[in-house]
Design goal:
By secondary structure, the protein is an all-alpha fold. The chain is built from five helices and no strands.
Length: about 80
């Protein structure tokens, strides 16, 4: 039972302290002064206009041949 007691005491003291420091560090990292622009950019990802990439996906999913496949060997080079 001595191993259990040691591990329990370790978890109750040093591991708890380490996890608290990690948590405070993660919060500090998220709210650091230079991160506002990054967070705003990430928050606006769903609102971006990606119609160009949507057209590419629609062409491929509809079975339309690729432009490179339509062009002859001399045209694609």
């Amino acid at each position: 039972m001595e191993t259990y007691s040691f591990l329990r005491e370790l978890a109750d003291s040093w591991v708890l302290l380490a996890l608290c420091i990690f948590y405070i560090g993660a919060i500090a990292w998220a709210f650091r002064p230079g991160s506002r622009a990054v967070h705003e950019e990430i928050a606006n990802i769903p609102l971006k206009d990606d119609s160009e990439s949507a057209n590419c996906r629609d062409d491929r999913s509809s079975g339309a041949p690729d432009r490179a496949a339509q062009a002859g060997p001399e045209e694609s080079a």
